[in-house]
Design brief:
This protein is mainly alpha-helical. About 35% of the residues lie in helices and about 5% in strands. The protein has a domain at about 20-70. The protein has a two-stranded parallel ribbon.
Amino acid sequence: MRQAYRLRFIRDRHGRPLGLEEIKAAGGITFAQNETAQYDSMPRSAIAAGCVDFVLPPDAIAREIARIARHPYVAPVVHTEDPAGDPT
């Protein structure tokens, strides 16, 4: 089943997307929907502000998030022993 997620971010008094800027400042990865967005003012604003890493349609955003999640720097580490060295 497909699920849709939409995030809304607060803008400052100049219309800049503060949420995405904060994500980027913390080292996060940001996405904006491309021209397929029904209401495109927020994605266009974020893209113009220069705080978007990927501009893609929704299905490509999902694929990119899945690809990033599999990267060894991001994927969770599976531990077979507890910190004391005892098998779990």
